[in-house]
Amino acid sequence: MTERPERWTQATVYPDMWVNPQNDPRNTDGVSPDGELPTLQDYLRDYRLTLTMKCEGLDAEQLARRSVPPSSLSLLGLVRHLAEVERDWRTWVRPDRPLDKLYGPDGGDFAGAVGDPAVVDGAFADLAREQRETDELLDRYPDLGERVGDQGIALREIWVHRIDEYARHCGHADLLRECIDGRVGQ
Fold first, then answer.
1. Would you say residue 151 lies in a domain?
2. Which of 16, 39, 111, 178 has the lowest CB atom count within 10 Å?
3. 153: number of Cβ within 10 Å
4. Angle CA(33)–CA(161)–CA(155) in degrees, nearest 5?
5. Domain contains 17
6. What is the pLDDT of residue 139?
7. pLDDT the model gives residue 2
8. Quick one: which H or E segment has residue 123?
9. Domains of the chain: total
């Protein structure tokens, strides 16, 4: 990218926000959730929404735009990558049912993130499906101390790892989006 976009935000109430509080789907009325599992679910929901919000309003070429050479990092690549890891987490829980990679081996999630509207639509459909299937599997395990899989991983660790994965990639998405069109905000 040769020209630098001007920084801007859609928010008018707080200049460091992505959108105004009344338009932010991550805002909920009332007190925080009671209990550990509902708190983890709430955080994961918000990070998933953040990733989606960072991608909104961009066309296929913009979503597929790479960060800086030689990196293959792009917003579309992140969407595809998170679909892959959602799928992989199910294998942590059920190693007897291994799942094939969605986009092939060796970084196909990022390498195949090209500026084609069909690829974009497919990536978001894949992510939604993989999130739903992982959520449905984990709903069967309400005890966060229960150990699953051949490694005996505690469910709590899987939940925290999921939040960590989305949070890290939402940080990448912040920088990618700012480079694409200058839009900033948490």
1. yes
2. 16
3. 16
4. 70
5. no
6. 97
7. 58
8. helix 117-138
9. 1
